[in-house]
Amino acid sequence: MTRSSPIRAGLLVLLLLAPIGAWAQQTHYERQADVAPTEEVIGEDYVTPEVQRPRPVGATRQLVDVGLLALALGLGAWLALWRRRRAWLVALTAACVAYFGFYREGCVCPIGSIQNVATALVDPAYAVPYYVIAVFALPLLAALFFGRVFCSGVCPLGAIQELMLLRPVTVPARVDRALSWLRWVYLALAIYFAVLPAAARDFVICRFDPFVGLFRFTGQAWLLIVGGVFLVSGIFVGRPYCRWLCPYGALLSAFSRYAWRSFSITPDRELDCGLCEKGCPYGAIENKRAVRTACFACGRCYRTCPVHRAAEDGERRAA
Ligand code: SF4
Ligand code: SF4
């Protein structure tokens, strides 16, 4: 038994127990659409505001979303850890941006669900839907088993940044490390605002999400600009939001520290020459080994490995 096994088991128990409090607070609620006042009843030229995006979805769709999330996590783990093919990971990344990002309009997302779970744990009057709990817990559970496979290409926020990174520049390790503390500050602030009494409560992660407006083609102008700045700067600087701001990324890196198995660079499967260290745009390789807390399991480093390139060329020729 490794030293991390008891910690992994502890985190697993915590992950399974924590949502139970929230789960216990389920109440059946159905909007009484037939008694809602109409524009005629209200009068005074009242116009019903447009339904907020995203529109509420039914139980079947929620079940489908949770199933697809689990499937994508499994696929990401298989492609990154076993198949070791960047090309297929890019295809998964593009598919997840299309579905979880543009089609499902970035909602419900595990990053925002931190707040729902935090609120439900302190407020007995707040009920959080089952599928939000599932969406919160699944990527963390996957991180305990396979590392940050959610970040490899499943999370639409990370995926869109991953696709934008075309000309990576190296960020000095010290700057990278210092900025990465911001994720924890943001996480603490988000939980603080989520557990305030109902009248003062605020879900800041959702309110200031820089990408969700881009997925929905709507939103406050300044936030759309911030999202655009993240994307444009992300052409050169690898995933700035993921590395320095994402509060869920902070949780994932903590869980992935105790992963049963995670993305690896090994002398028996790779050349072990150190080329990959230069090929990782996220500074996630140290001493020729992937740092499990920082590695997004994106597979970019495999592209720089002569062994993998030769294998891919061979597969292409055979096809
Ligand atoms: S770090 Fe956050 S935004 Fe980036 S891929 Fe992971 S969960 Fe998504
Ligand atoms: S080590 Fe770097 S390039 Fe390789 S999978 Fe991890 S984040 Fe991607």
SSE topology sketch:
Elements: H1 4-23, H2 39-42, H3 59-83, H4 86-103, H5 110-122, H6 130-146, H7 149-154, H8 156-164, H9 173-194, H10 204-207, H11 212-216, H12 221-233, H13 240-244, H14 247-256, H15 275-279, E1 285-286, E2 289-290, H16 300-304, H17 306-318
Antiparallel strand pairs: 1-2
Helix pairs in contact: 1-5, 1-6, 3-4, 3-6, 4-8, 5-6, 5-9, 6-14, 9-14
Bound molecules: iron/sulfur cluster (SF4) (2 copies).
One iron/sulfur cluster binds at residues 111, 150-151, 155, 157-158, 241-242, 246, 248-249, 252.
The largest sheet is: 2 strands, antiparallel
Low-pLDDT stretches are: none
Bound compounds, each kind once, are: iron/sulfur cluster
Assembly state of the chains shown: single chain
Structural class based on helices, strands and sheet pairing: mainly alpha
Written as H for each helix and E for each strand, in order along the chain, the element string is: HHHHHHHHHHHHHHHEEHH
**Average of pLDDT:** 89
